[in-house]
From TrEMBL:
Residues 116-557 form the Major facilitator superfamily (MFS) profile domain. Its main location: membrane. Residues 1-27, 606-629 are annotated as: Disordered. Keywords: Isomerase, Membrane, Transmembrane, Transmembrane helix, Transport. GO terms for cellular component: membrane. It comes from Paxillus involutus ATCC 200175. One of its GO terms (biological process) is polyol transmembrane transport. This is L-arabinose isomerase.
Length: 629
């Protein structure tokens, strides 16, 4: 939840000025949502000075904060107008310097905030390690458990064991996120989920049958699911607005780092010999070691601040102010964020009264369009084929002719590239836009998957190995800045605030369910269609997803809350027709190197001539260049 009004624009944290737009075909319910979200963008806008000061005094008396009334009054003025400190005498020079540095030196933050960033990054790495260590272990444990043959039965059983955590995430644990956060708070939820990750990783290392390993890994899902939804929210709620978007992005980046670290652990522990009475010590250490970072996070979180927004939602205002003082440099900043979060929560609660939010997510066109776009990008994150490589790259490299050690080393190469090329996404996602990144990278990923699969037809071992390696590594390079970071960022900003928590649960459950489907079916898919057909299957899905993104995924880069309501209120058929018209435009611009005139789907209200055209077509809203749509 944003803590500065000028930044309440979704996960991206873009600092554009508010703009108001016109749409000729908004239905009545969508207009209500648009008006409510406009209020949520800054509920303090337009309140006279005397009334604002009186409201703050009443708030301070009701919440037992009268001893910080002067800080709250200054904070409310900055919350209402972020530039007010420049022309009001109530602010000291020290206040002005801190508030100015907040924008001009946005990465200059308190030690407590960076402690929280380190903890959140390590929690994301835990997530990646939980997912990755099975990659190396599965070339070792199946034979010990009697499921290492090429039979269809054994292929399914390996898939069942590998996919067990994601079955739990999709069916149970993701839906526990909201009650856990409500009962325990962000800190304790992170503690509990990381503790579960640690214990279940140790449990996995002690199993002696495939079904026992399946049970242990299923319970690992109780650590993975809620943690994946809680940590990004916790980081966003503790962070100041100028760097909030980058920190949301870091979840994906450090998850990729955890996958890389898990692949490294697989390679290191492969060489550990068995000890008397212990068979399979190497794969047991692989699975067990993934729990160590989770234990470190459990210790770290004890000293981290609780989410101020969660404390305010529970009426614990004094504690929230104290935590904000730890996270900010000045009491004025802390008071501003405290009062603004309070006002925003009041507005949100007012919106939710008497409404069935789950039903409205699908019955109101604006919400339904956001849900469809979110479902497409979340589904695409799995069916682009990335987790086939993340979970089974060691087996894939083995099939192409690598030795076991070389296969593990090559998997480490994939993990390293996946992490390294996730770093630029912090900048490219807000430079080129979410939709453009997806439209560019999906065809490239399809080509890379075809290279990988068709290389298995090469009769020369060195050529086959080279083709498979090049295909997989290029896939990582194209995936990491595109479909890697976009889905969670997009889903976090697409839904209106009053259904955002339900929308994110829906989106998270979607990605974990299809993660489960992908991981359980891959071994059997390879047996049935060989690697060539299996990789071609996911290459085809990349192209299908490219079409779905072109038709139904709208651009959200740099949009305010009001603009997002306008963008998602465009009827799906209108946006699909617009997407089809982008194909000849793209051919002329990027293939024939011509300079065609871009179509503008969204036009500002002030563009009277174009706005008139919008009334005729029902297609034009907020200004958006077709190349950046």
């Amino acid at each position: 939840m944003s803590t500065a009004p000028e930044q309440e624009k979704g996960a991206s944290g873009i600092h554009d000025e508010q703009r108001h737009h016109h749409h000729p075909k908004l239905d009545a319910k969508t207009k209500v949502i648009a008006n409510a979200d406009a209020k949520l963008s800054n509920p303090l806008r337009g309140i006279p000075h005397d009334r604002l000061m009186a409201d703050v005094e009443v708030f301070a008396k009701e919440r037992g904060l009268i001893h910080i009334l002067s800080d709250l009054q200054k904070g409310a003025l900055v919350a209402q107008d972020p530039q007010s400190y420049n022309h009001l005498d109530v602010f000291t020079e020290e206040d002005r310097k801190v508030l100015r540095d907040e924008v001009t030196h946005k990465w200059k933050q308190t030690k407590t905030l960076y402690y929280m960033v380190v903890m959140s990054s390590l929690a994301a790495a835990v997530q990646g390690m939980d997912e990755a260590v099975i990659n190396g272990a599965q070339i070792l444990y199946p034979k010990q458990f009697g499921i290492g043959s090429d039979s269809k039965r054994d292929g399914w059983l390996i898939g069942v064991v590998n996919s067990a955590p994601y079955l739990c995430c999709a069916t149970i644990s993701c839906w526990l996120t909201d009650p856990l956060n409500n009962w325990l708070g962000r800190k304790k939820t992170i503690f509990v989920t990381c503790l579960i990750s640690f214990l279940t990783c140790i449990w996995s290392a002690l199993t002696n049958s495939w079904w026992h390993l399946f049970i242990a890994r299923f319970f690992l899902g109780f650590g993975i699911g809620p943690k994946s939804a809680t940590v990004p929210v916790y980081a966003a709620e503790c962070s100041p607005a100028p760097i909030r978007g980058a920190l949301v992005m870091m979840w994906q980046m450090w998850t990729a780092f955890g996958i890389c670290l898990g692949d490294l652990i697989d390679l290191v522990f492969y060489f550990i010999p068995d000890r008397p009475g212990v068979t399979g010590l190497n794969w047991r250490l692989m699975l067990g070691s993934a729990g160590i970072p989770g234990l470190i996070v459990c210790l770290q979180v004890l000293f981290a601040p609780e989410s101020p927004r969660w404390l305010i939602s529970k009426g614990r205002y004094e504690e929230a102010f104290n935590e904000l003082c730890r996270l900010r440099f000045s009491r004025v900043q802390a008071a501003r964020d405290l009062y603004y979060i309070h006002i925003l929560l009041e507005a949100e609660n007012e919106m939710k009264k008497g409404r069935n939010r789950l039903v409205e997510m699908f019955t109101i066109p604006r919400n339904r369009n956001a849900a469809l776009a979110s479902w497409i990008v979340m589904f695409g994150q799995q069916f682009c084929g990335v987790n086939v490589i993340a979970y089974y790259s060691s087996n894939i490299f083995l099939q192409s002719g690598f030795t076991q050690v070389a296969a593990l080393a090559s998997s480490l190469g994939f993990g390293a590239l996946n992490w390294i090329f996730a770093l630029p996404a912090i900048f490219t996602i807000d430079t080129y836009g979410r939709r453009n990144l997806l439209l560019f990278t999906f065809p490239c990923m399809a080509i890379c998957l075809l290279i990988t699969g068709f290389s298995f037809w090469d009769g020369f071992e060195k050529g086959r190995i080279a083709g498979v390696s090049i295909g997989i590594y290029l896939f990582a390079i194209f995936y990491s800045p595109g479909e890697g970071p976009v889905p969670f960022t997009y889903s976090a900003e697409a839904f209106p605030l009053y259904i955002r928590d339900i929308g994110m649960s829906f989106a998270t459950a979607t990605t974990w369910f299809w993660n489960f489907v992908l991981s359980i079916t891959w071994p059997s898919l390879v047996l049935a269609f060989k690697p060539q057909g299996a990789f071609a299957w996911y290459a085809a899905w990349c192209m299908i997803l490219w079409v779905l993104i072109l038709l139904f995924v709208r651009e959200t880069k740099g949009k305010t809350l009001e603009e997002l309501d306008q963008v998602f209120a465009v009827p799906a058929r209108v946006h699909a027709a617009y997407g089809l018209r982008q194909i000849p435009y793209g051919i002329k611009k990027f293939v024939l190197f011509q300079n065609p005139v871009p179509e503008e789907l969204y036009l500002a209200e002030g563009d009277s001539e174009a706005s008139s055209g919008a009334d005729e077509q029902g297609k034009k809203e907020v200004k958006e260049d077709v190349g950046g749509a």
